[in-house]
Amino acid sequence: MRIIAAAGLFAGLVVSGLMASQSARADMLPVPPFKGNDTGGIIAYSMATQTDARQVAVDHCARYGKVVKFLAVQAFEGGYISFSCRWVPYGAAQQPIRTLY
Predict the structure, then answer these.
(1) Measured between alpha carbons, how far is 78 from 84 in angstroms, rounded to an integer?
(2) What is the mean pLDDT of residues 7-19?
(3) Chain-centre distance of CA 46, in angstroms?
(4) Buried/exposed 55-84: b ≥16 CB within 10 Å, e otherwise
(5) pTM of the predicted protein model
(6) Among candidates 17, 82, 9, 2, which has minimal Cα distance to 45?
(7) Where would you tag: which of 18, 83, 94, 98 has the fewest CB atoms within 10 A of its CB?
């Protein structure tokens, strides 16, 4: 019985050692230039230099009936522009205007 337990322990150590030596390649996942949901999103700075980032964010938030509030800009290659989608303030028009041009 001790030999089986020792063999099982040894096999467990070998498997643990092999798993620990492997790196978790999270940096290989593709990141889209624009990603968002009903609470906000991010726009890649490289995309913002090619398109109108403000209009992209306004159109995105208008789909949820909200207005955009820009939060931060990382103005370098690999950086992001972050924004949040907020409810339309009281006293404003009923729905945000979505421009199509």
Answers:
(1) 20
(2) 54
(3) 15
(4) ebbbebbbeeebbbeeeeeeeeeebbbbbb
(5) 0.61
(6) 82
(7) 94
Task: Kindly give, in sequence order, each residue whose CB lies less than 8 Å from that of residue 74, ignoring residues fewer than 6 positions away.
Answer: 45, 80, 81
How far apart, in whole angstroms, are the C-alpha atoms of residue 38 and residue 98?
A: 16
Q: CA-to-CA distance for 68 and 58, rounded, in angstroms? A: 6
Work out the burial of residue 48: count CB atoms within 10 Å of its CB; fewer than 13 is exposed, 13-18 middle, 19 or more buried.
Answer: buried
User: What tokens were used for 49?
Assistant: 């230099």
Measured from the Cβ of residue 41, the count of other Cβ atoms closer than 10 Å reads 20
SS3 91: coil
Cα–Cα dist 68/86, whole Å: 6
What pLDDT sits at residue 83?
A: 96
- Encoded tokens for 70: 């820009």
